[in-house]
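Extended Data, panel c. Modelled sequence:
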Amino acid sequence: MSTTKSQALVLGASGLVGLHTTKMLLQQNTYDVIYAVSRRGIPLEHERLVQIQADFNSIDSFIEKLHINHIFSCLGSTKKKTPDKSDYLKVDHDYPVKVAKIGQSNGATKFSFVSALGANVKSNNFYMQMKGQVEEDIKALNFEELYIMRPALITGNRDEVRPAEGFASWFFKIINPLLLGNLKKYRSIDGKTIAQALVKTAGIDHPGVHTYNTEQIKKLA
């Protein structure tokens, strides 16, 4: 009988979506070990949870020998936290791509991550262009299974205060019911719902690249 443990890694585990994802993975038995990567740690304890406190510059030494089966990337910064574009790029692009490459070289076959509605490498918008580049660079690694979540505005209770997002959340509560048909993909979505969809991919055996907009994320969840 094989004693090899199935293992998953959550990148950005202290964020809104990442923390929900980690909690849900621990509630299931799909993976024997859950590695939660964050800079400051998370308020969780579990016999199957291994916390890794690291950043872009130190992550290599922590995961280069781990045999991960499935990577969940929930990273996402803000202009307020990282106003410098090069730093923004490092967090939202370089970090997940680096972890994807290391994980794949150690056996990872599945990659699920949070992108953004409108992600396009040809976009004139820096944020959308960057998200599009992340998608293209992850696709180029040819994971057996790749799941891309493209939500619109992500809502939910966060540790940090984001006034602009607070106003946007209030605004979308009003207009969400008015966004019908093809416009449904522009509705806001709770971070917990995105996490539910990410965790659902753990139980899917569907080779190829799969992209989900807001409404498709809700259906998957």
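The longest strand covers residues 33-38. This feature is highlighted in the accompanying rendering.
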